[in-house]
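Possible race condition, two jobs.
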Amino acid sequence: MISPTKPKLRLEELHERHPGLTASLGGTFLEAASVCLNRHHGSPVNMRVVCNGSASTQSVVFPKPDGRVLNAWANDIDTTESGAYGVSLAAVEIEEKLVAVRRAETLTGADWYVAPIGTEPSDLENCFRLEVSGVDFGGQSVVDARLRQKIEQTRRGASNLPAIASVVGFKEKAIAIQRVSDEK
């Protein structure tokens, strides 16, 4: 019996699918995610994705970082943040059919504006705010706690656009994505 192929989160060439990214920025996110994943796992890795309560498993293939890449990404905080951007954007693309169209302004309670695949929004009217975070260590309870923090952050943001919060747990191999309601 042939086993079903796991869906794949594509970290490579993000800029080709996300009009709000440049090739350089997409490459940065790929490098950072590779360093974060390589700290704990070999490629490919299966990550558990929980999106609005529905769970799936996504395969992530990443290049093994060489010494130069590891030296360039020696700051754990920056690396985890940038790696989470790449993984979250790839996951939201698969799970929600949304792509990055623009970086969010300070105080909006989010990092990115995302819109449905195929749209070229001239304004942000049909966009969602996407707040992203990454955690390098800790289990599912750490991922869940950070997701709750990020949900609250989006609620406090100076924007009336709907929001999505996403947290990547690199060691846990987990991605949590949640649309945010106004209800507490």
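Job #2 (started ~2 s after job #1):
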Amino acid sequence: MSRNLGSPGPPAPPPAVRTATPGWRDPRLWIGIAIVAASVVGGARLLASADDTVTVWAVAADMGAGDQVTEEDLVAHRVRFADDAQLNRYFAGDDPLPGDLELLRGVGEGELLPRAAVGSAEDTDTLQVPISVAVERVPESVGAGSVVDVFIVARPTDPQGPAPGGPGEPALRAVTVVAAPAGDDTFGAAGERQLDLAVPEDDAQAFFELLNSFDGPVLTVVRRG
């Protein structure tokens, strides 16, 4: 067998390259660790903020001034507040609800119950004033929680005297119906309906004085809203 001494031999194999494990001084290692740490911290904060809510009391149905407030009238809502100062304006669900609470103003269904909207029944000057109204002079939709105006439609005993509360001016303005029994449940005369109204004490006194100044007064109730 002849051999060509002038032809080159087979090429030499390339040198083996070993994979080097990055050392702790390698900046790529620290960049990776920083990215992972940032992801963990960001995810933890996101999960924490997703449940950063507190339970507060809200009104289950429309309620008006003079209504007594109990836990049966409330529902718990979870709300997120920007700071504790805002939370302190309302009743937190984990705090015991004070007893003998009475609304000082109307609060709508689903509205958070503000501390400023309630007071102790002993501290308020609201009276419950009963009136009897012919059924055709009160809207059927009037019920507990309705806000109404009350008009007196009759001539005063003294024709020369002033007639406040006449057809153009309500004798009671924007008062809340505390109770409104159905016609069959009232103890008044047939064809009349009883309404119990929450009226400030001064307004109640003025209303009775005005009512007594009329000869055969007739009341008409107008619902607001």
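The radius of gyration is 38 Å.
Logs attached separately.
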